Amino acid sequence: MDIKKLTIKEAHELLTKKKMTVMDLVDAVLKEANSANKNLHAYLEIFDDTRAQAEIAQKMIDSGKATLLTGIPLAIKDNILIKGKIASSASKILENYRASYDATVIKKLRNAGAIFIGRANMDEFAMGGSTENSAFGVTKNPHDQTRVPGGSSGGSAVAVAAGMALGALGSDTGGSIRQPASFCGVVGIKPTYGTVSRSGVMAMASSLDQIGSFGKTVEDAEMIFDVIRGYDPMDSTSCPDVMTKIKTKKPKVIGVPVNFVRAKGVDPRVLKNFEASLEKMKKAGYEIREISLPSLDYALSVYYILVPAEVSSNMARFDGMRYGYHANGTNLLEDYGLSRGEGFGREVRRRILLGTYVLSSGYYDAYYGRACALREVLRNDLDKAFKEIDILATPTAPTPAYKIGEKISDPLAMYLADIFTVPVNIAGVPGISIPSGFAEEKGVKLPLGIQFIAPHFSEDTLFKAGKDFEKVRGF
Description:
Helices cover 40% and strands 14% of the residues. The protein is α/β, with parallel strands linked by helices.
């Protein structure tokens, strides 16, 4: 059994046909995780109760009550609450915080018999695109340990890519599932906003955050998504099931916003791979149609106004008074300042300051108000485009994985790495990243990804197109 290549579907068949026990599978994953984590630092913690979880899953299988995820080892991003476990969001301010309840997605996975291997490293409070902003150390790309795995869900992507889990949960605010999926050579889906509950997930930017899944294949990511999706009365942004269960047809027309895709700063190797991928989709029977979406050019600017604004509001709860890190000052105001100054990392402090600025009375209309208006323009433009096409295609990221430390001192350069992914979150539509090839650099093959985007609640369309692409991509 090659644990690095084993898919969820294959593992499920082995378990249900009694060719392998849950304990065998968990032990194999733990062996890989304990060995590889020393160098890759994908996990902040590998749980010590995995064998107890395995026993429960085995009983489900033996009694004929197994689901597709029963006994399947998963990595869980550190901003998702698991009762009794530390949930730090990779921040010093929550270093010793233990969750008092399960997030809704954890309840659903637990009921399905999934195994939680550990909590995956991430950028602090999901702020970053490289997993270099964790308070507890950098996660490394398994294809080249001198490079970043992407972020903010870098630990989750690495765990799947390196065989340290068969699947994983991440959160995606502007590409935080899809970009690391591209950098690490796995599949990652960001669902339609509201299709997966955010109850029990630490908020970064509430109107954009969405929980999604990682897998080695499109089918694996779909299996996890099917378990965690659904209406939740504990989440005020959760969409009723009657809205989400729409009929979708097999996609035939792929739209390509050519001017946007060929923007300045896109690596020529990425463009070459993207064009080759489109040619393969043509051979699979798809029509490729060039389209114009000028509003996409403003997406990044809109995103980096909306996100800091919501961050400044959401981070206000971490004041050192009720829970989390506390530093003593000479008075209450100094307690607040020291606790937040020492507890938050540089990127979190940067976004709080930016958000406070754009929400201030003198600049609210000039920045935040205009960003909200442009958000609606982008959303409407995409709705119009989807009347003519079935899915939209772009590269997932403008470059392959870059070197650790290369962009950490230049936040603007790092923000530009989100150019292709942020429109999906702004509009609330679903997007998926699928491995599409490699860019070779100094003898190392660095993964690349293609991104498919569909209308609201059309995840099935993405899965159909993704599976078709996997059949023709040729590796």
